[in-house]
């Protein structure tokens, strides 16, 4: 069953590591965007009733509850199994959570990134571990137990000891879902640009080495598993039954439609996206971007192998990709069990290199 993604790209601050199409915009642009977004959702012709909705961004927890309600009301069908709202710690109150619940929100994803105050301040975040503890208590009191915590490995100043402190907080707070991302050095974030051009701002010189960041990631895999939160996708970990139903659609190549800035859509055959520039999005009159046909075989490997349960290649795919499959099985990086093919647990950090070989094979 399909999913819906809605982008709300407004933030209280721009974090130094962030490479999303989000920012601090004027209230005038925010107003225009909200109208355009609502128009886009309302004018969509739905081929199917969705079962999941994901509000991402940006910081959708800053959205007015009335807008959230209007957006959800514009989506057909009332059998939504999962409605996720991404939240920045420090923006939750008992009142806002009650409002979200009346709109149907039943899952909250907290962009915590780190529980270490010094690391948070360095990247421009204002919350502390205590903020997160208090807000999780309010969420649970309000009956929202499906909670995700995002962490980032590779932030300036991070060490094995400080990473362990963050993981200790996970043990204490016991969320059923955790996402662990590795900081990406690219030109789309201020910190990434600083590193690429040998700058020193934002703690650029204190970013851990690739080797240390890899170790932090592997430590998280082992510790989270001890807590009963197992890896089911390269960056995602959950207690059984708490895997993100919406995000699973991306890796299982199920259809989804995206609305708003830089939102992507996929109908099983083609992909398209909205502009990633706010003014361009507003100017376009919400026309969807150009459609590109997908290459089903490549995507099955490139996207599906991100799941630890792997994929079930078709007979044609076993033949077409025989060479890279045999190579990576021989090197112990892929594992075959019956008709399934999966990344070996120790091969995850090399996954991009492995996936590349399935492109144009
Ligand atoms: S990391 Fe989250 S809160 Fe920070 S700028 Fe990016 S979208 Fe906004």
Structure description:
The chain has 361 residues and is of the alpha/beta class. β10 and β11 form a beta hairpin. α2 runs parallel beside α3 and α6 runs parallel beside α8. The mean pLDDT is 94. Bound molecules: iron/sulfur cluster. Iron/sulfur cluster binds next to loops.
Return Rg in Å.
21 Å
Q: Label the structural class.
A: alpha/beta
Helix content: 25-40%
Unreliable segments of 5+ consecutive residues: none
Bound molecules: iron/sulfur cluster
The strand count comes to 14
Mean pLDDT: 94
Q: Indicate the overall shape.
A: globular
Largest sheet, spatial ordering of strands: 7-8-6-5-4-3-2-1-9
Distance between the termini: 30 Å
Q: State the CATH superfamily name of the largest domain.
A: Aldolase class I
The succession of helices and strands, N to C, reads EHEHEHEHHEHEHHEEHEEEHEHHHEEH
Biggest sheet descriptor = 9 strands, mixed
Share of β-strand residues: 15-25%
Number of helices: 14
Number of domains: 2
Task: Summarize the entry for a quick read.
This protein has 361 residues and is α/β, with parallel strands linked by helices.
List its traits:
361 residues; alpha/beta; TIM Barrel; 2 domains; nine-stranded mixed sheet; three-stranded antiparallel sheet; 14 strands; 38% helix; binds iron/sulfur cluster
Layout of helices and strands, plus pairs?
Blueprint: E1 3-8, H1 27-42, E2 52-57, H2 65-73, E3 82-87, H3 94-103, E4 107-113, H4 117-123, H5 129-141, E5 147-153, H6 160-173, E6 177-182, H7 190-196, H8 210-226, E7 230-233, E8 236-238, H9 245-251, E9 256-259, E10 264-266, E11 270-273, H10 278-283, E12 292-293, H11 296-304, H12 315-320, H13 322-330, E13 334-337, E14 340-343, H14 351-356
Parallel strand pairs: 1-2, 1-9, 2-3, 3-4, 4-5, 5-6
Antiparallel strand pairs: 6-8, 7-8, 10-11, 11-12, 13-14
Helix pairs in contact: 2-3, 6-8
